[in-house]
Amino acid sequence: MNALWITLALLTAGFVGWPVTALVFRLARTIDDRVDAGASAAGPATGPAAEDPAADSTADVESPAPAADAASRDSAADAAAADDAAVSSARILRGGAIIGVLERFAVCLAVLAGQPVAIAYVVAIKGLGRFAELKATPVAAERFIIGTLTSMLWAAGVAAVVKVLVLG
């Protein structure tokens, strides 16, 4: 009977954690959009988040530095257009959904097995694997932190409830 509860806990932590994490991402984006709207009273927001609030794409778009003359302005505009096309076609933190499911499985299993030290291994492996990408893009780093904390809290909570109430 314990094997059934452990299996249910792992499945709940792993697969039900995805919509929970997506909800937290949506909440964070809504809060950011409200802050941005309050900061600029110029009118309605534009961009991917305004067009599709459920969009789950994260990208760092940097504005080009001001150019000194017309020739450099034209080349800067061309470079910015190319950068925007490259950024919009690339997704930051690819594979995050699959990694998140595996992370939730590992955290839930660690708590159920009474080995919370294993959670530190999961965080270390995940951080080292994403280090270069996180260092290069601040938006990716923010998304990484939000997703990791949400996933870990969900998985640990599910495991703790099952361990305390069912497995005793």
Descriptive report:
By secondary structure, the protein is mainly alpha-helical. Helices cover 77% and strands 0% of the residues. The chain contains six helices and no strands. The chain has helices at residues 2-39, 48-51, 70-89, 96-112, 117-136, 138-167. Helix 1 (2-39) crosses helix 4, helix 1 (2-39) runs antiparallel to helix 6 (138-167) and helix 4 (96-112) packs parallel to helix 6. The protein is globular, with a radius of gyration of 21 Å. Mean pLDDT is 76; it is low at 49-68 and 80-90.
Give me some keywords for this one.
single chain; about 170 residues; mainly alpha; 6 helices; globular
Question: What structural category do the secondary elements indicate?
Answer: mainly alpha
Strand content: under 5%
Mean pLDDT: 76
- Anisotropy-based shape: globular
Radius of gyration: 21 Å
Give a count of the beta strands, DSSP E runs of length 2 or more: 0
| H/E element sequence | HHHHHH
Low-confidence stretches: 49-68, 80-90
Outline the biggest β-sheet: none
Helix content percent band: over 70%
Q: Can you summarize this structure?
A:
By secondary structure, the chain is mainly alpha-helical. The chain contains six helices and no strands. About 18% of the residues have low confidence.
